[in-house]
C-alpha cells in the first residue's frame, strides 16, 4: 500500500515521477504528491487529494528540476487530504520524505523527541522527517547519520526516500518490511516500490534489504548497513513487457485480465512442462512436500479462497492433510502444528504484510516453505525456501482475477506432480484437463454479452446478494461474493448452501438475488433444493451450472471440465457479473473505493 518513486538524473523529474506514480496507483489512490528540487537548492512541493490525474493538473509545468521524490497514498493514519498527502517536510522545510508503511511507535517517538514541534499533518510519517531534522539540529549529525539514527528509532514497516534541500544531488533511501528497489541508469538512478514504475527508464534493478541505507546520486548507488559497511549487490534485469502494463483497447484492466485467463492457463502448461511433455516442478519442492506430514496454506483475501480450492486439490491428489488459514489470524493465534509441517504461502503480489509476518515466524521455527506468487523477487518469494511463479503477467486491476485462477492451476500442477511421485497417480491428466479448462474459459469470455444482460437484470439495483454452493462451489461462492462486493459495493455473502437455513435465510426478501453454483454431481440436487427455499421466500434466483448437471432454466451453463478444476471455470462468469455490475453502477472498476492492490500493512 502506498507507492513511492524517486529520480535523480538529467531529465525532467516531474514527468518521470508522475509517470511512475501512475504505474503505482494500484498501491493506493486517495492522494498523491511530488517534491522536486534543482541544483540551485529550490524545492517545489505539489500535493493533491484523489488520483494522480488530479495531481498532474496541479503541478506547475514551468518548474525545472532533475531530481525528486513522489508518493501515491492509501491512508492509514489521517484522512485522505492534501494536508496528509506525502511528501512531508520538516518544520524548516529543509528535509522532505515519502514513506510507505506504518510507524507503530510514532506516538512514543513524538513524545520522546518532538513534544515541542507543531505537526502539520495527522500522519505517522511526519514524525520521521521531523525526527531527522531534530537529529541534524540537536545532535549536529550529517543528514545520512541523522537518517540512520531516525530509522533505528522507528518500529514498524517503512520504505522511505529522503531529500535534503541543502544537498540536492542525493536521495537517501531505507526500508523495513515494505518493498523498495533501486534502479540503475546511465547518468541517472531511480528508486521505486515496484519495477513497473520505472521500467520505462531502466530494466536494471537492485533490491534494497531491511536494515540497509542507500545513497543515490546521478552517478552512483551505494548501499551500506547501519554500521557503514558497503554492500555489493548485483543488479537483476526486470522482465516486464511494457505492453503488459497498458490496457490496449480495453476500457478497464479488469476486463483485459479476465479475458487473459485462457492464455495464462496455456502459458502455465508450457512453463511447467519438461522436455518429455510431462508436467514438472522442482524436485526439491516435491521431496520436501513428501517428507511433510501436514500442509498449511497461508493467504489473505482472494488468495485465501484459492487456497481453499488448493486444499481439495492437494488432499485428493497427494493424500497429505492440508489446512488453510487466513494469514492475519494464523500469525497471532497459531494452532498446534504437526511434527513436520510444510507451509505454502499464496500471494499474487508476494508482499502482503499479513502473510509475511507468518513467514517470519515459520522461518524462525525452521519450517520449510513455498511461495506461490505472480511476482518474482517479491518479499515472500525471497524469504521462503521455494517459489512457484504464476506467470500471469502483471495484474493491475485491484480485484484479482487471473491471479486467482493461476494460483489454482499451479496448485493443481503441483498436486499432480507430488501425487505421481508418491505413486498415487499413474497417468496424470492435468495437462489435458487444464487445456480443456482454457477452452472452457474462452467459451465463457466469448459470450460475455449474455452475462452483461444478466448483471443488469439481477444486480443493477440490488442492495444485497448471495452466492451459494457446496464443496468446491462453496469455495467459489466465497470468491464470487468478495469480487462482487469489492467493486460493486453490494453487500454480498458467499454461503455454504446448506447452512443458509440455519439463520441467514432471514435476510432473503422479495427480489434478493441468490446465485447458486452447481458443478458437483453429488450435491447438485441439494444445492438446487436450497435455492428453491430462497425462491419460495421471494429471492430472484440464478443458477450457474456445469454441462451435464444443467437444467433447461439455468441462466449460465459452463462447459464440462474435470470436477476437481471446476472452480477455474465457474468463477469466470462471476468475475464478469461483478465487472458489469460495477460498470453499470458507474464505479471505477479498477480502483474501487477504500482499497489498494498490494496490502503491505497488517
Ligand atoms: C481481492 C484481492 C485481495 C487479495 C489480498 C491478498 O480481489 O485481490 O483480496 O487477494 O489482498 O493479496 P495477495 O494475493 O497479493 O497476497
Describe the structure.
This protein is of the alpha/beta class. Helices cover 36% and strands 22% of the residues. Helix 11 links the parallel strand 18 and strand 19. Helix 9 runs parallel beside helix 13. The radius of gyration is 25 Å and the shape is globular. The mean pLDDT is 95. Bound molecules: fructose -6-phosphate (F6R). The site of fructose -6-phosphate has 14 residues, from helix 9 and helix 16. The site of fructose -6-phosphate (F6R) has 14 residues, from helix 9 and helix 16.
In the sheet with the most strands, the strands line up as: 3-2-4-1-10-9-11-15
Unreliable stretches covering 5 or more consecutive residues: none
Strand portion: 15-25%
Ligand names: fructose -6-phosphate
Query: Radius of gyration over alpha carbons?
Result: 25 Å
Task: Please report the total strand number as a whole number.
Answer: 25
Main β-sheet: number of strands, strand sense, barrel status? 8 strands, antiparallel
Outline? globular
Distance between the termini: 10 Å
Overall pLDDT confidence: 95
The number of helical runs is 18
Share in helix: 25-40%
Structural class: alpha/beta
What is the element layout, followed by pairings?
Blueprint: E1 3-8, H1 13-24, E2 31-37, E3 43-49, H2 52-58, E4 67-73, E5 88-89, E6 95-103, H3 106-113, H4 125-138, H5 143-153, E7 156-164, E8 171-176, E9 181-184, E10 189-192, E11 204-207, E12 212-216, E13 221-225, E14 230-231, E15 236-237, H6 253-259, H7 261-271, H8 283-291, E16 294-299, H9 301-318, E17 322-326, H10 327-330, E18 341-347, H11 353-364, E19 369-373, H12 379-383, E20 386-389, H13 402-421, H14 430-445, H15 448-459, E21 464-469, H16 472-488, E22 491-496, E23 513-518, H17 521-535, E24 540-546, E25 556-558, H18 566-584
The site of fructose -6-phosphate (F6R) has 14 residues, from helix 9 and helix 16.
Amino acid at each position: 500500500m502506498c507507492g513511492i518513486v524517486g529520480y535523480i538524473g538529467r531529465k525532467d523529474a516531474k514527468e518521470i515521477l508522475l509517470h511512475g506514480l501512475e504505474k503505482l496507483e494500484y498501491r493506493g489512490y486517495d492522494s498523491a504528491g511530488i517534491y522536486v528540487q534543482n541544483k540551485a537548492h529550490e524545492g517545489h512541493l505539489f500535493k493533491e487529494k484523489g488520483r494522480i490525474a488530479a495531481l498532474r493538473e496541479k503541478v506547475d509545468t514551468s518548474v525545472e528540476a532533475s531530481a525528486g521524490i513522489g508518493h501515491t497514498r492509501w491512508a492509514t493514519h489521517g484522512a485522505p487530504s492534501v494536508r496528509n498527502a506525502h511528501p512531508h517536510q520538516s518544520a524548516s522545510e529543509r528535509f522532505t520524505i515519502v514513506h510507505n508503511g506504518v510507524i507503530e511507535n510514532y506516538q512514543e517517538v513524538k513524545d520522546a523527541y518532538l513534544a515541542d514541534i507543531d505537526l502539520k499533518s495527522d500522519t505517522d510519517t511526519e514524525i520521521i522527517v521531523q525526527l531527522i531534522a531534530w537529529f541534524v539540529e540537536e545532535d549536529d549529525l550529517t543528514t545520512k547519520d541523522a537518517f540512520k539514527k531516525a530509522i533505528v528509532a522507528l518500529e514498524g514497516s517503512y520504505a522511505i526516500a529522503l531529500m535534503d534541500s541543502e544537498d540536492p544531488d542525493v536521495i537517501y533511501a531505507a526500508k523495513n518490511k515494505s518493498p523498495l528497489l533501486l534502479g540503475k541508469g546511465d547518468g541517472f538512478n531511480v528508486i521505486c516500490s515496484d519495477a513497473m514504475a520505472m521500467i520505462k527508464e531502466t530494466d536494471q534493478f537492485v533490491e534494497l534489504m531491511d536494515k540497509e541505507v542507500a545513497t543515490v546520486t546521478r552517478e552512483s548507488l551505494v548501499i551500506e548497513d547501519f554500521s557503514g559497511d558497503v554492500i555489493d549487490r548485483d543488479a537483476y534485469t526486470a522482465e516486464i513487457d511494457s505492453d503488459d502494463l497498458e490496457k490496449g483497447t480495453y476500457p478497464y484492466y479488469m476486463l483485459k485480465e479476465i479475458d487473459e485467463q485462457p492464455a495464462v492457463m496455456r502459458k502455465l502448461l508450457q512453463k511447467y512442462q519438461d522436455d518429455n511433455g510431462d508436467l514438472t516442478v522442482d524436485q526439491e519442492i516435491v521431496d520436501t512436500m513428501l517428507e511433510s506430514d501436514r500442509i498449511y496454506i497461508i493467504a489473505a483475501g482472494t488468495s485465501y479462497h484459492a487456497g481453499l480450492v488448493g486444499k481439495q486439490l492437494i488432499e485428493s491428489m497427494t493424500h497429505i492433510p492440508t489446512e488453510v488459514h487466513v494469514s492475519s489470524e494464523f500469525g497471532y493465534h497459531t494452532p498446534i502444528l504437526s511434527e513436520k509441517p510444510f507451509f505454502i504461502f499464496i500471494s499474487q503480489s508476494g508482499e502482503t504484510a499479513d502473510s509475511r509476518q507468518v513467514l517470519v515466524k515459520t522461518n524462525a521455527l525452521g519450517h520449510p516453505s513455498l511461495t506461490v506468487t505472480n511476482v518474482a523477487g517479491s518479499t515472500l518469494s525471497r524469504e521462503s525456501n521455494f517459489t512457484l511463479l504464476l506467470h500471469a503477467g502483471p495484474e493491475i486491476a485491484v480485484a484479482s482475477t487471473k491471479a486467482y485462477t493461476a494460483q489454482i492451476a499451479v496448485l493443481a500442477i503441483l498436486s499432480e506432480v507430488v501425487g505421481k511421485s508418491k505413486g498415487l497417480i499413474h497417468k496424470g491428466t492435468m495437462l489435458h484437463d487444464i487445456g480443456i479448462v482454457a477452452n472452457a474459459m474462452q467459451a465463457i469470455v466469448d459470450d460475455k454479452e449474455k452475462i452483461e444482460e444478466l448483471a443488469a437484470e439481477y444486480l443493477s439495483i440490488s442492495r444485497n446478494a448471495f452466492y451459494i454452493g457446496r464443496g468446491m462451489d462453496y469455495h467459489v461462492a466465497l470468491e464470487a461474493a468478495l469480487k462482487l462486493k469489492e467493486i460493486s459495493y453490494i453487500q454480498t455473502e458467499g454461503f455454504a448452501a446448506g447452512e443458509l437455513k440455519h439463520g441467514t435465510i432471514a435476510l432473503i426478501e422479495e427480489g434478493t438475488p441468490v446465485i447458486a453454483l452447481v458443478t458437483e454431481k453429488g450435491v447438485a440436487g441439494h444445492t438446487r433444493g436450497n435455492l428453491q427455499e430462497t425462491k419460495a421466500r421471494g429471492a430472484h434466483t440464478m443458477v450457474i451450472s456445469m454441462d451435464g448437471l444443467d437444467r433447461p432454466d439455468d441462466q449460465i451453463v459452463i462447459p464440462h471440465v474435470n470436477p476437481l478444476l471446476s472452480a477455474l471455470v465457474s468463477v469466470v462468469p462471476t468475475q464478469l457479473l461483478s465487472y458489469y455490475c460495477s460498470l453499470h453502477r458507474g464505479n471505477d472498476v479498477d480502483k474501487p473505493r477504500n482499497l489498494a492492490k498490494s496490502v503491505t500493512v497488517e
